[in-house]
Amino acid sequence: MTPIRRSVTSYLRQNKYLYIRIGWESYELNYSVGYQVNPDAWTGEFCVKNSVHGKKNMPASVINRAIVTATMKIENAFAYFEARDEVPDKDELSLRLSGKVVREKITLEAAWATYIREGCSQRQWAHNTVRSIRQVQKLFDKIHPDIKVKSINAKVLQQFVERQQYMRVSEATASSNKNGYANNVISKNCAILKRFLKWMGANNYIDPAIERDWHPHVKSIEKPVIFLTWDELMKIYELDLSDKTTLAEVRDLFCFMCFTSLRFSDASQLKVSQIVGDSIYVTTQKTARNIVIDINRYSSEILSRYSGKHGERVFPYHNCKTVNDGIKKIGKLAGINSPIVIQQYYGSDRIIRTCPKYEVLSTHCGRRTFVCNALSMGIPAHVVMKWTGHRDMAALKPYIDVADDIRRSEMDKFNER
């Protein structure tokens, strides 16, 4: 235990209010005793005996006792930090003197670990959620290596945004942005960091105002909804892959998602016991919602191909990368090459590129394909929501807009006759 060198002196301000000036290390704090004192009856340390002070004629004995009490409180506060071999900063000493709970000092790495641990235990975060948080943690550490929790402020957070933009501008070009950060990615990273900062503020690790006053904004364009039309889906479903076992399994899993609305995390882990009669019973990993999906003839055909072949699991295991890569290969083989225009902002530059649809196919397209085709077929939105587990109509709006476009294009065929 190392004693903290300090000075404690009483003084009067111009408004005659009594303060105690505390100096230690490179810090200084003025602590209010809460009384006005008559300068003519002030010795520089205590009030003159039997004098009265302020508009309420407060006796000197009361004020002098308050000075002694405040001095003892200051000494006890320093003793608290000395016992922990810590030197408090101005905010930490103020909190201690105010009687509020002072959080033990924590490293940023420990804060991230605690945040993730609490999220997994209390909110049952999925693996992908944790992975996204860890990616932002690594990015923040890369931009601000060795930063202390107490050093996080508005400037540091602004640098987090700007550095990602700088990394993008300096390391990426208009023709190849693989090393950079698109604005929509920066927005996602900032949203994850902002939730972490909110948790830090709620636990008194930082001032809650730091998160509350941080409003990062980068220009972005809403991504198009990538999905397969019914004709495209049938091309993939009917594609002959008899000589390509792995691609055939990937195709069946992907089509099963397109016919049931299941996410990859749920479809890939589907158990035989979850299929009862003509329904699939699932508690979704992402939202922990219980949903019941009716089995149609296409999903039934796929299930029959794998019945009893993989023990308790319905489908053979393939990781997400293998499935995503396989979906693109299958899309190319099936001729899913209609042009897709992708627009993204990189800083203030809007980058536009056109690519065949198979290049942007992924597991995410399965659920979108189900929703868009179901709505375009005229299935009521509230019924679709029962299958997908969407909580409100706002979440379906992008798909409803797409379905309306499909219906309009189908009606235009009458004009071509």
Q: Could you please describe the fold and organization of this structure?
A:
This protein folds into three domains: 6-98, no CATH class; 108-212, DNA polymerase, domain 1; 230-415, Intergrase catalytic core (hpI Integrase, Chain A), CATH 1.10.443.10. The model is unreliable at 169-178 (pLDDT under 50). The strands form four sheets. Strands 1-2-3 form a three-stranded antiparallel β-sheet, covered by helices on one side. A three-stranded antiparallel β-sheet has the order 6-7-8. A two-stranded antiparallel sheet has the order 4-5. It is α+β, with helices and mostly antiparallel strands and 417 residues long. The protein has 15 helices and ten strands. Helix 9 packs across helix 12 (320-333) and helix 13 packs across helix 15 (397-415). The radius of gyration is 32 Å and the shape is elongated. It has helices at residues 60-83, 90-98, 108-122, 127-143, 154-171, 183-202, 208-212, 230-237, 245-260, 264-267, 297-306, 320-333, 364-376, 381-388, 397-415, and strands at residues 6-12, 17-24, 27-36, 52-53, 58-59, 275-276, 279-283, 290-294, 339-346, 349-356.
